[in-house]
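Morning F.,

Quick status update on the modeling queue. The single chain you submitted on Monday has been processed. Sequence for confirmation:
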Amino acid sequence: MMKRTLARATVLAAMAGVGAGSADAADYKKNPFTLVYDGAITKNEPGKVNIHAVTYKLNGLDIAANVYTPANYDPSRKYPAIVVAHPNGGVKEQVAGLYAQHLAEQGYITIAMDAAYQGASGGQPRSVDKPQFRTEDIHGAADYITHYTGVDATRLGLLGICGGGGYALNAAKTDKRFKSIATLSMFNSGMVRRNGYVNSQMDTIQKRLQQAADARAQEVAGGEVLYAGDANLTDEQIAKLPFDLYRQGYEYYWKTHAHPNSTFKYTMSSLLDLMRWDATDQIALIDKPLLMIAGSKADSLYMTEDAFAKATGTKDKELFLIEGATHIETYWVPKYVASAMGKLTPFFARTL
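Structure tokens below.
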């Protein structure tokens, strides 16, 4: 069932219940759940999709998450469930929440959680971003949601977005509780932190590894925690960035969908773990249905294509391209979100 398909998003807009939209800034203060995506829930009403803020323990840390229950949720019934992993720098109130809500509209119980050391979840120092922690976050969300009232633990799916997509692949290699796996605009964090985006920093790998080692030494000696990615750029500087992902990423995270818990920065010492890791290592261990979605114009597409080719352990796999979409546009542009949902809905219906 290996397939590669290209979609025209415009005909699918009605499927996900989203209409024309704009990049007007969302204000987290105006939503009681601090959600910043278009069409977000503003109050829980009987007969509609509801949102529930939950906290659970994972390796001694408090993990903050939102659980979405479908319309007319009946705790005496059994529902399939889906874990949604957020992008690097993202939080559950942004794109992860958008897709979690849309999937709940299709009848799933969904969970979008903040990564440990990030967002509203616990952990010190803040903004540690290590692959083993992000992978464990997904295992922990599976632990929690499979025991949530009304969940059928035998029908558990996984959706990872951007960096969460790379970590979703990593978790699914061994966690066979996930019966099917989908990624959206997958970002292989290890590959990019090691080689640079589009392999643009190959000549500085050893220098950056030395910086990471020095940062760790400084941390353990009680010195200042150093951070990477903590830039405060002007509009002019953003416009000069060489890649769509970064230009549109700043726009999304700092302006149109900004949330106070969301940040680009991560501890410099995290690079010791990130730079020796790769989302595609042992990817052939995935033997479940796999759907990988990306924008046809995304400059990150090479990472999805690389992982898809290496995922040889499953014969039920599809690479779906959303025609005309860049990486960040799959997060919020209504017609592209509708196109993604137009594939995710039948995929999870078939596999869960």
